[in-house]
C-alpha cells in the first residue's frame, strides 16, 4: 500500500512539473525555426539577412561574415523568442530582448568570432529606474532593459540560466535594431 501511494505521489509530482514547464513555454513569445529552409541573402538595401523560405528572420548585417555567423546560430535553434515585444513605449526597441531556444546540440557549437560578455548569474537583478523602466544587471554588467515589471522578471529568469550574453552584428551592450543577440 505504501509503494502504491509513493508511486502515485511520484506520478503526481511529475505531472505537476510537466504542466508547469508546458505553461511556461506557452507564455513565451516565440517564432519556430525550420532549420532545413535557411539561407543567407544580400537584400536590395545592401544588407545581409538570414532567410527562412524567402522571409527575413534575422537581418541587417553589414557583412556576409556576420550573416553566416547568424546562420550557424539559427540552424542550431528551435525558435527565435522575445521578451517585451508588445511593450507600450514609444522607443520600444530598447525594451525588447531577443533570445534563441537552442537545440540539444547548441552547447557544443562554436560560432567563429563570437562576441560575448560574461557575467555572474547569481548576481542578476532588476532595478526600477523610473515608472516605465527597469534595468537588468549582474554586478556592473548591463544585460538589458524592460518597460514592465513582468518583462523584467522574465529577463532576470533568462539571464540566471546563462553566464554569457552574446551578439552578432551589433556592438556589445548596444540596443541597435541590427544584428542579433543570444545567451550561453
List keywords for this structure.
about 25% helix, 3-stranded antiparallel sheet, alpha+beta, 12 strands, about 180 residues
Describe this structure in words.
The protein has 184 residues and is an alpha+beta fold. It has one domain (30-104, 115-183). The chain contains 3 helices and 12 strands. It has helices at residues 2-26, 64-75, 149-160, and strands at residues 29-32, 38-42, 48-52, 55-61, 77-83, 97-102, 115-118, 124-130, 133-138, 141-146, 164-168, 180-183. A 3-stranded antiparallel beta sheet has the order 1-5-6. The chain has a 3-stranded antiparallel beta sheet with strand order 2-3-4, with helices on one face. The protein has a 3-stranded antiparallel beta sheet with strand order 7-11-12, with helices on one face. A hairpin with a 2-residue loop joins strand 8 and strand 9. The longest helix is centred in the first third of the chain and has 25 residues, at 2-26. The radius of gyration is 19 Å and the shape is globular. The termini are far apart. Residues 6-26 have low confidence and may be disordered.
Amino acid at each position: 500500500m505504501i509503494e502504491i501511494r509513493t508511486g502515485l505521489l511520484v506520478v503526481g509530482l511529475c505531472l505537476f512539473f510537466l504542466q508547469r514547464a508546458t505553461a511556461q513555454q506557452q507564455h513565451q513569445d516565440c517564432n519556430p525555426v525550420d532549420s532545413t529552409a535557411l539561407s543567407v541573402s544580400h537584400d536590395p538595401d545592401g544588407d545581409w539577412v538570414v532567410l527562412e523560405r524567402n522571409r527575413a528572420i534575422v537581418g541587417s548585417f553589414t557583412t556576409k561574415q556576420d550573416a553566416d555567423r547568424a546562420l550557424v546560430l539559427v540552424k542550431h535553434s528551435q525558435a527565435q523568442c522575445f521578451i517585451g515585444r508588445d511593450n507600450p513605449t514609444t522607443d520600444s526597441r530598447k525594451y525588447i530582448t531577443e533570445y534563441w531556444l537552442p537545440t540539444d546540440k547548441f552547447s557544443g557549437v562554436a560560432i567563429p568570432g563570437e562576441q560575448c560578455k560574461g557575467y555572474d548569474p547569481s548576481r542578476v537583478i532588476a532595478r526600477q529606474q523610473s515608472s516605465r523602466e527597469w534595468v537588468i544587471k549582474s554586478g556592473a554588467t548591463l544585460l538589458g532593459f524592460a518597460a514592465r515589471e513582468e518583462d523584467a522578471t522574465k529577463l532576470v529568469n533568462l539571464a540566471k540560466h546563462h553566464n554569457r550574453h552574446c551578439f552578432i552584428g551589433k556592438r556589445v551592450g548596444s540596443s541597435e535594431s541590427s544584428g542579433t543577440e543570444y545567451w550561453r
